[in-house]
Amino acid sequence: MISKKCKYAIKALLYLADNQSEARSIFSTEIAEKENIPQKFLETILRELRNFQLLQSRRGKTGGYRLLKQPSEIRLADLMRMMDGPIALLPCVSLNYYAPCEECNESTCTIKPVFEKVRDETLAILGNTTIEMMRE
Fold this sequence. Notes:
The protein contains 6 helices and 2 strands, in the order αααββααα. β1 (55-58) and β2 form a beta hairpin. It folds into 2 domains: 4-67, Winged helix-like DNA-binding domain superfamily/Winged helix DNA-binding domain (Arc Repressor Mutant, subunit A), CATH 1.10.10; 75-135, no CATH class. The protein has a two-stranded antiparallel ribbon with strand order 1-2. It starts with a helix and ends with a helix. α1 crosses α2 and α1 crosses α3 (39-51). By secondary structure, the chain is mainly alpha-helical. The chain has helices at 4-19, 28-35, 39-51, 76-84, 112-127, 131-135; strands at residues 55-58, 64-67.
């Protein structure tokens, strides 16, 4: 299950992709209101997205947030890892955050192969889905 933080990050990026223009950045208050996201929580999320270099922000009357990357370049798998960490359901099947399970022997484990399949299918979908594709 993805966290609310990750879900809100996706919603914010979709809103920015749908509503930003060359002439305008978008204030966090607008995103929070239109997407029904708590303002303070959204500010934290937008700061993280800026730190991950997905957004740029400007202060002031003409300030706000803008996408730094094209929506077609932002993959859900990457975004989910940024916001939540591992995608795999078990640490022993994670590609980027591998950790052995304390209580089991991986060579004889009958659970691991099933969750490797789940991981592979999940990554195939999330790795091939972009913010742009979600707008269609």
